[in-house]
Amino acid sequence: MAKRALITGVTGQDGAYLCKLLLEKGYKVYGAYRRSASADFGRLAELGIEKEVERVAFDLLESTNIHRVVDKVQPDEIYNLAAQSFVTLSFEQPVYTGEADALGVTRFLEAIRMVNLQTKFYQASTSEMFGMVQATPQNENTPFHPRSPYGVAKLYAHWISVNYRESYGMHCSSGILFNHESPLRGLEFVTRKITSSLARVKHGLQDYVELGNTEAKRDWGFAGDYVEGMWRMVQQPEGDDYVLATGETHSVGEFVELAAKHAGFEVDWRGSGDNLTGIDKKSGKTILKTNPELYRPAEVDFLLGDCTKAREKLGWVPKVSFEELVAMMVEADLDKVSRGVLRT
Ligand code: NDP
Ligand code: GDP
Fold this sequence. Notes:
This protein is α/β, with parallel strands linked by helices. It contains 11 helices and 15 strands.
């Protein structure tokens, strides 16, 4: 009989790629989504799988609903990808972020404890938990120091998953994933903001890209590679914690330069920090400006992951390089803008 997987956050970037992967592996996939008047399954549609996923209404804030969903679906594996995932918003909505990203996980684990302790559980943890990094590169043994309500909430979720593993012998895995991007990434995250805005600038639909801190560095990989790592964690005999990362770090400014090059611009920088301007050498046009209002109250300046454990125990390695990722995202957004289908 086909294995049953319940994926929360199915309308998001990772939800879409993970659904595709598990469908290819022959799973019966239940996609848990937050019901609203305008629930958007556009990412599943972009991957051509929206009809193959069984939809289940779900909210991280509602214990009774989570319990009923787990009871009804009787999944073999649960991938909890649902979250308020945007760091900037977590400074504006810290209480909500804690309710969803932290307590939501306890609600889930309690439901599993009551329905079936054998259910395997994957928790979407994050390199944001390292925050003000205490060692470089960061691996599973690096101490945490989150720098946002999002990071703090996710750290609670990480530890409660570890706690249920230790307390009840549950198969809980915490995937500490460094930033991963794709043409399906939300438009508010910096990589997609850059590629979608540059595509609009290129087509004359926008004057320039406006950014905050361009000096922050991230270890950026491709989301399609990372969902494969999630699945591999869940297939292990025991639940455990694993870092998934590329082992390369780049600044936001470097991402801009490379993306601009793929879009046919060449950036000449003027000024620095919150007074930085990027001018296209060929046309003399300003294509980027920084805005101090887009800086965060506390920043994660630098992230660089070490995925040795995942490589050795899961046989996981990222396949798409930084250059390939940037090119893939720019090309996809240029294509979407030219077809008039880029959502803004
Ligand atoms: P997205 O923001 O694209 O997707 C988040 C999903 O969570 C959406 O489907 C959203 O639904 C859903 N959601 C939000 N709030 C609730 C709620 N209260 N109840 C039910 N569903 C809810 O995130 P990604 O796909 O990029 O990331 C997946 C997970 O991995 C997240 O938990 C994220 O924090 C984590 N993560 C992501 C990283 C990355 O670089 N992408 C790095 C490390 C961790 P709706 O469409 O209704 O908003
Ligand atoms: P995060 O690592 O989960 O916070 O992912 P983001 O893509 O939201 O941000 C990555 C980095 O880009 C952070 O250091 C941000 O401060 C920086 N950044 C600079 N300008 C912007 C911007 O306009 N939007 C976002 N989202 N991030 C920006």
